[in-house]
């Protein structure tokens, strides 16, 4: 199936539309809308360094989204927050918390090696046992965990100890942290304790590659490695090659895809969408030009601050801010370039929808900053 002498070439717009369709960003059909939990599963998690981004990510993707749908799933422990892909906090289904984290453990081990200088004399097996006992006795903040670990290893670097704790064990952020409209500091326990069942052995990477392609494909080996933080994935793709279609992008990079995955016409309209900071759409490929035009590379960040972004015609076209008070929620659109009248109208409509779904303020205001 996959062995083609001259694989078809997919242009940037073809890749863009294929990825948007799989990300629920090309259309929102109320008749086929996924539940919040199903969307989290299909997208293999949502980036969640901050509390609100997963909610805004689903608001952009699901018709008639109610933040309480994800919040209730989190309160019911069918989804949870923990460090997985790319050493960052993600919101995952309970199943993925217990299987995906073991799969990417090699990346956590690699990260931990960078801090070995501060862990001289620390037995990591014993540390994992101590951490488990502490956080399963009761959830702990990272500060509390560090202080308790320093009793055992007073000569160790405190920060290195905290890195070791989250790298050696899958530590979930317990609620109320992560709930919509609630507040709470980060307190941690093990995924197994929080979810009430043991972690699964690390699954073969094959299934996760197929899930990645279903959510982000067509994609290259390097794309998948960028998304997952794993290395040496070429052999997995080669093992799967007979089951996959093969394409090339305009630069000649080999791309893999599922035979039955959607690849819409590149001319398919792509309505405006407002994305949160850290949205996985912008972070899950080595070559991000399918969404980020070359002239806008690097514009989603200022220093260490990531910006909320919006898509126009499927591509990154600007950033947006949301300022909320008890009386008014103001969404400010900051385009990277001039807007046509039609695009401005589309952005206004999408901004109004976002405010209606995501803000309880009685008054909504939409503003456009100069390009």
Provide tags for this entry:
371 residues, alpha+beta, 5-stranded antiparallel beta sheet, 5-stranded mixed beta sheet, 14 helices, 38% helix
Radius of gyration: 22 Å
Helix fraction, binned, reads: 25-40%
| Total beta-strand segments | 15
* Helix-strand category: alpha+beta
Strand order of the largest sheet: 2-4-3-5-6
Report on the biggest sheet: 5 strands, antiparallel
User: H/E element string?
Assistant: EHHEHHEEHHHHHEEHHHHEEEEEEEEHE
SS strand fraction: 15-25%
Which geometry do the CA atoms define?
globular
* Low-pLDDT segments: none
Distance between the termini: 48 Å
Mean pLDDT: 94
Our count of helices gives: 14
Give a structural overview.
The chain has 371 residues and is α+β, with helices and mostly antiparallel strands. The protein has a 5-stranded antiparallel beta sheet with strand order 2-4-3-5-6. A 5-stranded mixed beta sheet has the order 9-12-13-14-15. 38% of the residues lie in helices and 18% in strands. It contains 14 helices and 15 strands. The mean pLDDT is 94.
């Amino acid at each position: 199936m996959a062995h083609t002498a001259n694989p078809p070439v997919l242009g940037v717009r073809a890749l863009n539309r294929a990825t948007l369709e799989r990300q629920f960003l090309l259309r929102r059909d109320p008749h086929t809308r996924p539940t919040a939990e199903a969307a989290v599963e299909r997208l293999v998690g949502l980036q969640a360094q901050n509390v609100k981004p997963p909610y805004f990510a689903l608001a952009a993707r699901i018709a008639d989204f109610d933040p309480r749908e994800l919040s209730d799933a989190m309160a019911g422990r069918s989804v949870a927050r923990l460090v997985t892909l790319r050493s960052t906090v993600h919101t995952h289904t309970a199943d993925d918390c217990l299987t995906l984290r073991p799969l990417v453990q090699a990346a956590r081990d690699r990260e931990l090696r960078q801090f070995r200088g501060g862990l001289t004399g620390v037995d990591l097996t014993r540390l994992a046992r101590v951490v488990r006992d502490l956080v399963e006795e009761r959830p702990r903040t990272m500060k509390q965990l560090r202080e308790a670990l320093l009793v055992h290893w007073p000569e160790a670097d405190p920060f290195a100890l905290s890195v070791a704790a989250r790298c050696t064990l899958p530590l979930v952020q317990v609620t109320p942290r992560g709930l919509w409209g609630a507040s709470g500091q980060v307190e941690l326990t093990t995924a197994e304790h929080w979810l009430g069942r043991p972690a699964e052995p690390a699954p073969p990477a094959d299934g996760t590659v197929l899930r990645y392609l279903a959510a982000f494909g067509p994609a290259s080996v390097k794309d998948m490695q960028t998304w997952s933080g794993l290395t040496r994935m070429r052999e997995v793709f080669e093992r799967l090659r007979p089951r996959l279609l093969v394409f090339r992008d305009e630069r000649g990079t080999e791309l893999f895809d599922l035979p039955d995955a959607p690849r819409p016409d590149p001319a398919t309209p792509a309505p405006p969408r407002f994305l949160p900071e850290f949205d996985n759409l912008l972070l899950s490929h080595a070559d991000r030009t399918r969404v980020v035009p070359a002239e806008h590379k690097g514009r989603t960040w200022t220093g260490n601050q990531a910006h909320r972004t919006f898509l126009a015609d499927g591509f990154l076209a600007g950033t947006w801010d949301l300022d909320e008070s008890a009386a008014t929620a103001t969404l400010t659109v900051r385009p990277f370039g001039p807007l046509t009248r039609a695009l401005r109208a589309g952005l206004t409509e999408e901004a109004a929808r976002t405010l209606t779904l995501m803000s309880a303020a009685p008054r909504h205001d939409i503003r456009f900053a100069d390009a």
